[in-house]
Amino acid sequence: MSIVFLNGEYMPVEQAKISPLDRGFLFGDGIYEVIPSCNEKMIGFKWHIDRMNDGLKAIGIDLNWKHDKWQSICEQLSEKNGSGSLGIYLHISRGADTKRFHAFPEGVEPTVFAMAFKIPQLEGSDLNHIKGYALASTLDLRWKRCQIKSTALLGNVLHFQEGYEAGCQETLLFNDNGELTEASSSNVFIVKNEVIATSIQDNQILPGITRRILLDVLRKDGSFKVEERIITLDEVKSADEVWITSSSKEVAPVTHLDDLEIGSGQLGHIWFKAASLYAQHKFNY
Ligand code: PDD
Asked: Which structural domain range is residue 158 located in?
């Protein structure tokens, strides 16, 4: 994974240099995106670019590149890095000023960086060999604009680390009212009595593209009732199944939360159906 894109050029990662005065570096002042790609076919490409543009607009970075331009960059990055099952990472910061000053600088071009990284099993993943995730839970201490996919990820990083240090692979987050928001780098679904539920899309969660695709696939399939609603900690603990979703994990089953087993502690049959449906339809998005 050595060829990256920086400000209009492709180059080996060792040659990619940015100023230490870049506001992405100094302030985490930027927006990023992660798009799953299989041999140049991207999953949810339009929705990923739309979300990135929403983020840029929300923080006042003016960069009006068309979807076609982004598509060409993503495809070229994929090709130059051996194709296959990849995540394409896009990153736009407010650019490099001549000094460190909080206000937006004038006349400064945004810095645009992109790279590719391996995602093990996007193509033909065998659901029979997937292991259940063990999760920790904690109070969501991040900011109140979690719908923005900001490069300032310290809140998420610290939450992820809490779970990691407890021997878990993700950390579930609950707000002050004991309501589920999301996980440190994923969205969350629960199942109880064959009803699937996920948190409401508001400022407390990232509008995950995997979440959006999965909701659409499940509703079109129609086998299960699907709800977007407030979910409490007690409901998560007593759920029959819990899943986490993200571009790299797709639809991943959770078998343990803190010292509890979720449901039977085994992979759920509704998860299997949902993950199969996702795998079947994901390239249509
Ligand atoms: N994480 N919530 C948070 C806080 C996330 O960081 C992510 C993605 C998601 C899922 O979004 P999507 O389905 O669009 O990937 C939800 C990415 C992959 C990351 O930071 O690496």
From this structure: 127-284
